[in-house]
Design brief:
With 134 residues, the protein is α/β, with parallel strands linked by helices. Helix content is 43%, strand content 22%. The chain has one domain (23-126): 3-Layer(aba) Sandwich (Glutaredoxin), CATH 3.40.30.
């Protein structure tokens, strides 16, 4: 009986730890619908204009991966295919891959291009999480 109780306790703790370690920073492929819904709801959201052939983009992706367990970065990063989303690039004035645009609702709070410094990327993402969106 003690063994069964111990197993249940371990299973319960494992589930609790899994919930705590769930990623706060959510990375998803870009869709106009996901962006529209987040912006309309006033949620923090970021666009990462990414190209598979871009070493800077890969470095940024690695940094974003390191941010995933950080519960203070509770927002979605939509990964935009730089080579395919030409109309979106034009609409937003994006001239280079590795561009990160951060929004809180309809308000742009940060824009970086070619940045791989973790502190600067974190600050850009956090800009959408402040109470007043600044």
């Amino acid at each position: 009986m003690t063994t069964l109780l111990t197993k249940k306790l371990i299973a319960g703790l494992s589930c609790a730890l899994a919930a705590l370690s769930a990623s706060a920073l959510d990375s998803q492929p870009y869709s106009a619908q996901a962006l529209g819904e987040a912006r309309q709801a006033g949620k923090p959201v970021a666009l990462h204009f990414h190209a598979d052939w871009c070493p800077t983009c890969r470095a940024q992706e690695k940094v974003f991966g390191e941010f995933k367990p950080d519960q203070r970065l509770a927002l979605t990063v939509l990964v935009v295919n730089y080579d395919k989303e030409r109309a979106l690039r034009k609409e937003l004035g994006v001239r280079t891959q590795s561009t990160l645009i951060v929004y809180r609702g309809d308000r742009e709070t940060a824009r970086l291009a070619g940045e791989t410094d973790a502190a600067r990327l974190r600050a850009a993402l956090q800009s959408a999480l402040e109470a007043d969106g600044r």
